[in-house]
Amino acid sequence: MQYFIKIIVSVSVILTCTSIGKKLPSLAGLLAVMPLTGLLVMLFVYFESENRQATMLEYNKGALWGIIPSIMFFAVAFWAFKRQFSLPTVLVFSFSAWIFGAAVHQYFLK
């Protein structure tokens, strides 16, 4: 039942952002990257972990430094869309930047 609730909440957030994005794309972008997703995961991890303090410290450290690869993703996407690249090309460039940033993230946070 808990798993089902997680799916419903997560899908609801995505569908809400998608619906808003049809009329107000910049607001949908703001909502999509706001800490709501991080908050949901934080709550799920908190209530399912045994060593809550240590787990939450590590989760928050990863989330805080994980912002950098996310910024890289959106910065590259913004750059590529400004140059009118196709969506598949934008996604390849953006995810490549994110994967690089995520690899560096994991290397330094070990």
Walk me through the structure:
The chain folds into two domains: 1-48; 51-110. Helices cover 88% and strands 0% of the residues. The chain is built from five helices and no strands. Helix 1 (2-23) runs antiparallel to helix 2 (25-33) and helix 4 (52-82) packs antiparallel against helix 5. The N and C termini lie far apart (33 Å). The mean pLDDT is 91.
What are the main properties of this structure?
single chain, 110 residues, mainly alpha, 2 domains, 0% strand, 5 helices
Mean pLDDT: 91
Our count of domains comes out at 2
Extended strand count: 0
**What percentage of the residues does DSSP assign to strands (E)?**
under 5%
What is the count of helical runs?
5
Largest sheet: none
Overall geometry comes to flat
Q: How much helix, percentage-wise, in residues?
A: over 70%
Q: Indicate the radius of gyration in whole angstroms.
A: 16 Å
SSE layout and pairing:
Elements lengths: L1 H22 L1 H9 L2 H13 L3 H31 L4 H22 L2
Helix pairs in contact: 1-2, 3-4, 4-5
In brief:
The protein has 110 residues and is mainly alpha-helical. Helix content is 88%, strand content 0%.
